[in-house]
Structures are given as C-alpha cells and as structure tokens.
Amino acid sequence: MEQIIIIMMSVILVDNFVLSQFLGVCPFLGVSKKLDSARGMGMAVTFVMTLATAATWPIQNFLLEPYGIGYLQTLVFILVIASLVQLVEVVLKKHVPTLYKSLGIFLPLITTNCAVLAVTIMNIDEGYTYAQAIFNALGAGLGFLLAMVLFAGLRQKLEDSKMVPAPFRGIPITLITASILSLSFMGFGGIVDGIFA
What we know:
By secondary structure, this protein is an all-alpha fold. It has 9 helices and no strands.
C-alpha cells in the first residue's frame, strides 16, 4: 500500500504529466479557457488513462511479450486508446451533450494525446504490477485533472483582469502562467521521497 501511495503522489505532484513532463499540453492549453470544460476534459482523460492501462497491461504481458511481438506495442496501445476514446465520446454525446459540445475537437484528440500513450508505455517500462499500473494511471489522470482545473481558474482570473498589459493579453500571458504553474509544482520534489522516511 505504501508503494501505491508513493506512486500516486509522485505522478500527481512531482512527475505531473503536463507540468513536469510536458505531455498532453495541447488539451491543457486548448480546453482550459473555462473551468467546466477543463474539468470535463480532465475527467475524460483520467477515465481513458485508467481504462487504457487496465486493457494494455494484460495485452503486453500476456499476448505481445509471450509471442515475441512486443514491437507492436505502440500500434496496439493506440488502437486500444482510440477505442476507449470512441466509447467516452458516445457516452458524453448521449448523456452530457453540453460537455460534449464544449470539448469539441479536443475530445477525439484524446486518442493522440501523448500523455495517455505515455502512461501505458511507462507502466510497462517501469515494471509495475497490474495494481501499481492502474494506480499510476489513475494518479496521472488526477494530476492532469488538477493541472487543468488550476490552470483554468488562473486563466479565468486573467481574462477578467485589467492589470494585464495589452501586449501580454491572450497567448503570451497564457504561456507565462503555464510556466509559473509548472515551476510551482517543482516545489513538491522532495515531499514524496520524505513521506514515509
């Protein structure tokens, strides 16, 4: 249990996929204008990351590696992720049409979100057990959700602010804010190592 807590805290705070590893930046910048759409995208990515890991870990360990076709890992993983994104898209379109419309083109782009593929491959490369892989994916998704929600809140405050100089409005202040948020997460570096020390 201690190992799982360390894995989750590390991937949420220290090795955050968006703010530390700079994976999944496209939806991070594109869907973070409104808090509701950022939260929805974060939950969708968390769901897809967790389910993708639940599906790809057994495929890798019980199908690809035993038959010596591990070189097909990326192709197979992308196909699994694309199928899961289609499932999420159908569910959102039917049950939450407003969120579906607000996510727009970024929802199908979860398929090509490098953070989702990265977490599935990282679970294999790190040699995680099935439970560790699931919790790592869940933590990565929650870290993505946290980054999205924090950034969306900051962007909304900046949009309403009259203090931002004219040359910095729009994309420049968005990128500056993202970099400062990323720097703030670096402060968590020593915390995870010292939790159980």
